[in-house]
Amino acid sequence: AQSVTQPDIHITVSEGASLELRCNYSYGATPYLFWYVQSPGQGLQLLLKYFSGDTLVQGIKGFEAEFKRSQSSFNLRKPSVHWSDAAEYFCAVGRNTDKLIFGTGTRLQVFP
Amino acid sequence: GAVVSQHPSRVICKSGTSVKIECRSLDFQATTMFWYRQFPKKSLMLMATSNEGSKATYEQGVEKDKFLINHASLTLSTLTVTSAHPEDSSFYICSATLIGGRTLETQYFGPGTRLLVL
């Protein structure tokens, strides 16, 4: 069955610290992979995506993610977190059906 | 650009009544709109795919008579929760895709509608 797992429900980091949000997936073929961010009152915003090619992808707001086929993972990273990064982060997978399968999300809290 | 709005942002209704939620693409035309439902601490679950001028395609387990979807124009899709019950309380999110775009790349999400049925 197709699924996405985000093992960390809630993560707290200090401003300026590095961040890694985990995402593992189960899919029949190499999927398209996405990270979205959801802030209160805002729609989901696409941070980055992987379709093919270079397995390290750069996104907006200083985020990057690395696709590791052997580990079925697509972890999101940021070297230095800002207070404005506090939000809910969702990993998602999809393919030609155009249907996205979302993980349960990770809530990021940033302390000054 | 590529903004999607939803109205209302939150609604409280009595059990047995119907509630309509609107999803609009404000500055682009959308061939396809998607409706999702999000439970607390759960992922977004796709409910249905809505194409302008045709019937919506519902995911397995979603009652089409309970959740009526109409996509009357290239900028508006509506979700009507008919005879709502407390178990229908949830966060409903829509997304829209640009005409000519590859859906997975150009899916833009609305801010969501919080429905509470008493």
Condensed summary:
The complex is a heterodimer of chains A (about 110) and B (about 120). Chain A has about 110 residues and is mostly beta strands.
What does this structure look like?
The complex is a heterodimer of chains A (112) and B (118). By secondary structure, chain A is mainly β. In chain A, 0% of the residues lie in helices and 51% in strands. Chain A contains no helices and twelve strands. Chain A starts with a strand and ends with a strand. Chain B has 118 residues and is an all-beta fold. Helices cover 0% and strands 54% of the residues of chain B. In chain B, the strands form two sheets. In chain B, strands 2, 4, 5, 6, 9, 10 and 11 form a seven-stranded mixed β-sheet that branches. A four-stranded antiparallel β-sheet of chain B has the order 1-3-8-7, with no helix packed on it. In chain B, a hairpin with a 5-residue loop joins strand 5 (44-51) and strand 6 (57-58). Chain B is globular, with a radius of gyration of 13 Å. The chains are: A mainly beta (112), B mainly beta (118). Chains A and B meet through strand 5, strand 6 and strand 11 of A and strand 5, strand 9 and strand 10 of B.
Oligomer, anyone? heterodimer
The most extensive interface between chains reads: A-B, 22 and 22 residues
Number of DSSP helical runs of chain A: 0
Tell me the major beta sheet of chain A: 6 strands, mixed
| Helical coverage of chain A, percent range | under 10%
Provide the succession of SSEs of chain B.
EEEEEEEEEEE
| Mean pLDDT across every amino acid position of chain A | 92
Rg of chain B, Cα atoms, Å: 13 Å
Q: Count of DSSP E strands of chain B?
A: 11
| Helix and strand element order of chain A | EEEEEEEEEEEE
| Uncertain segments of chain B | none
Coarse morphology of chain B: globular
Major pleated sheet of chain B = 7 strands, mixed
Q: What fraction, in percent, of the residue positions of chain B are helical?
A: under 10%
